[in-house]
Design goal:
The complex is a heterodimer of chains A (114) and B (114). With 114 residues, chain A is mostly beta strands. In chain A, 0% of the residues lie in helices and 62% in strands. Chain A is built from no helices and eleven strands. With 114 residues, chain B is mainly β. Helix content of chain B is 0%, strand content 56%. In chain B, a hairpin with a 6-residue loop joins β4 and β5. The radius of gyration of chain B is 13 Å and the shape is globular. Classes of the chains: A mainly beta (114), B mainly beta (114). Chains A and B meet through β4, β5, β9 and β10 of A and β5, β9 and β10 of B.
Chain lengths: 114, 114
Amino acid sequence: KNQVEQSPQSLIILEGKNCTLQCNYTVSPFSNLRWYKQDTGRGPVSLTIMTFSENTKSNGRYTATLDADTKQSSLHITASQLSDSASYICVVSRATSGTYKYIFGTGTRLKVLA
Amino acid sequence: DTEVTQTPKHLVMGMTNKKSLKCEQHMGHRAMYWYKQKAKKPPELMFVYSYEKLSINESVPSRFSPECPNSSLLNLHLHALQPEDSALYLCASSPETGVAGELFFGEGSRLTVL
C-alpha cells in the first residue's frame, strides 16, 4: 500500500534550537519527494524537492535528506525561528499509467517558543 | 506570476444554499486540483483536471460539483452540503499530470456549513 508516515506528530522547541522531522514512505514506483510548509489556515508551500539520486539538499536553514534504499527522508531545521511554527508535510509522487499522483504524509506540527 | 488565487477566503452557508468556490492561476499549468483539509489533517484529494478535462474524481459526493471553464480557472460548486463538509478547501495547480511537478497551492477557502 502506498503510504507516507511522518514523525513526530507534533514537536515543541525553543527558538534558536535545531530539530529534525522524519518521513518514511512505502510509495512505489517512487518519482520524487517534497517537503511542504503549511502555516495555519494557509496553503502549503514547497521547501525542497528530492529525486531518487539526491541525498541532501539545502534551502537556507532547511536541509532535507533522502535515503532511497531505506525509503526515509528527514527535514532538518537549523537555528529555529518563531516563524518556523507550522505544519510540515512530506509528499511523495508516484507514476501510475502515465499520470503522477501525490501521496501526502500525516504531517508534523512544529511549535517554536520564544 | 507563481500564484494560485482562491475566492472567497471565507464562506458560511446553510445546508440549503448553493455557492461556489473559485480558483485561478496564470502559470500556464494544465493540471488543477481540489483538496479538502480538515483541522490537523493532511489535504485529501477530491478532483483532478488535466487539460480542462476531469481525470480523477476520488468518489466525492455529488453535492460537490467541479467545473473547469478554461485552463486558468477552476470552480467548485456546492449544493446541499452537510455540517461535516466544513473544512479548508485548497486549490492547487501543477504543470501537467504527466510530470511530477511541484504543486502550487492557493491560500484556501475556509467553508463553514451551518
